[in-house]
Amino acid sequence: MPGGVASEYLNVGTFRFWFVGQRWEWSDEVARMHGYDPETVEPTTKLLMSHKHPDDRAHVQDLLDYALRSEESFSSRHRFLDTKGDVHDAIVVADRMLDDSGAVVGTAGYYIDLTHTFDEARDETRQEVLDEALPELFENRAAIEQAKGVLMYVYRISAEQAFRLLQWRSQETNVKLRALAKRLLDEVSTLTSPAATAQSQFDHVLLTVHERIPPDHSAQR
């Protein structure tokens, strides 16, 4: 399975999905997220889709159908329900899975459960993470804040959740946070430009956002 033990900063599990036969594997962490004891249930497309939140199910099905047609990986921000009916807010981040010849055979990646990010029980751990990162934050604030902004926009998450994602990848890959953030920004700049519709939507927000700011926040003349 990709990755290692779930991060102490986020509830993270791994999965693999083979396009041929639509065969799934999930880690013990992902099984527990869904309310199952490890190795008691075999994951299937039908089972996983049955857990998706009714309002998000069509969106996830569309992504899965696209992945099967295009042989591309899929990522998603969506909700799912565990066996108790509790709702989980999750990000699925994946990349293409290749065989020895380099052919795409599936997708593999992570389930990141954001549901309990702000639980009181995790406040102490959260503070330890921030304290540990403060020297790097002061020294490299610009790169880290920019990388957080990218994650916030792409995954529609909060600033703290974005920081946790960066911290998780830093711990998982044994790469310093500042180096990871800077490299992420370098590589994001090489990606294909967003679709025209996304660009148009952002243009509209940029040019009209001032209209939705209360008067007392106007710039000082």
TrEMBL record:
It comes from the Bacteria. Residues 26-71 form the PAS domain. Residues 124-185 form the ANTAR domain. This is Transcription antitermination regulator.
